[in-house]
Amino acid sequence: MKLLLIGYGKMGRAIEARAIARGHQIVGIIDPAHPEVTIADFSPATVDAAIEFTHPDAAFANVQACLRQGLPVVCGSTGWLHHFPEAVELCQQTDGSLFYASNYSVGVNLFFHFNEYIAAKMHQFGGYDVQVREIHHTQKVDQPSGTALTAAEAILRHFPAKTIWRNEEAQQPNELAVLSERTGQVVGTHIVTYSSDADSLELKHEAHTRDGFVDGALLAAEWLPGHQGVFGMKDLLGL
Ligand SMILES: NC(=O)C1=CN([C@@H]2O[C@H](COP(=O)(O)OP(=O)(O)OC[C@H]3O[C@@H](n4cnc5c(N)ncnc54)[C@H](OP(=O)(O)O)[C@@H]3O)[C@@H](O)[C@H]2O)C=CC1
Ligand SMILES: O=C(O)C1=N[C@H](C(=O)O)C[C@H](O)C1
After folding, report:
1. Dihydrodipicolinate reductase N-terminal domain: which residues (predicted)?
2. Which tens digits make up the pLDDT trace of 119-171?
3. Which CATH code of 3.40.1700.10, 3.30.360.10, 3.30.70.3450, 2.30.30.100 fits the domain covering 106-206?
């Protein structure tokens, strides 16, 4: 496949290496260090899919540019989802292809799946409180992490005792604490803890390397061309 990389940081470089090893061709790299190359230079004739891992402030404009150019786009950037409804609308208007996941690792998507199940059961049986924690490297600019927010939003949907999340300790019983920690080079750890006076149940995902994110993003890029609309890992993995 002919891939356009948007963002050439930790994820962009790791995706480049893995993509080439899988036989793909990198036809362009969009990087602030080379402002002369822009998304507008590419078209469906030259690109099968774009893969976007940049920055919360840059992602939406990049997704818009891809959709306007008719490029299927796989986006992994976090911290821009307040614009997601606009991205969905533009995707519909342009008959485009957009794939988004706050976390591309298969393990995390199973973690999301089981978290939804457990949240619903905990609500049904009662007696438990719940908290989300995420730990990442100190270069991460957004908090809470996109992954923690996906897990928190699922808890709000399936565990109605929690109606709102906050990025600190809960002050009221209806508040879901989503706690963030930044330390060292931690790739990404997410923990959901359900606790009662009697016992605790912890669901934990710990990324050891970025390989899981990279492989998932490449799988999405291989799958997306030919699929029109807005998709996520549930579509790809059949969850
Ligand atoms: N969904 C998932 O599975 C995962 C998501 N992420 C998310 O992906 C994003 C990137 O992560 P990561 O690679 O670790 O971050 P890095 O900071 O290592 O890399 C981001 C890169 O994007 C560049 N950049 C900034 N603005 C633009 C722009 N307008 N166009 C093109 N490139 C730009 C930066 O350049 P410069 O430094 O010059 O500004 C930098 O090289 C984050 O939002 C992170 O949360 C990360 C891992 C997994
Ligand atoms: O910035 C990161 O590194 C990561 N970001 C994503 C997030 O915000 O959830 C995914 C992963 O945890 C790594």
Report:
1. 1-104
2. 999 999 999 999 999 999 999 999 999 999 999 999 999 999 999 999 999 99
3. 3.30.360.10
Catalytic residue among 10, 113, 121, 140: 140
Q: How far is the CA of 117 from the centre of ligand 1 (A)?
A: 32
Residues of the chain with pLDDT under 70: none
Q: Which CATH number fits domain 2-104+211-237: 3.40.630.30, 3.40.50.720, 3.40.1440.10, 3.40.50.300?
A: 3.40.50.720
Residue 77, ligand 1, Cβ within 6 A? yes
Quote the strand ranges of the chain, DSSP E: 2-6, 25-30, 49-52, 73-75, 97-100, 129-136, 164-166, 175-182, 189-195, 200-206, 229-231
| ipTM at complex level | 0.99
Structure tokens given for 72? 């299927």
What is the model's pTM?
0.97
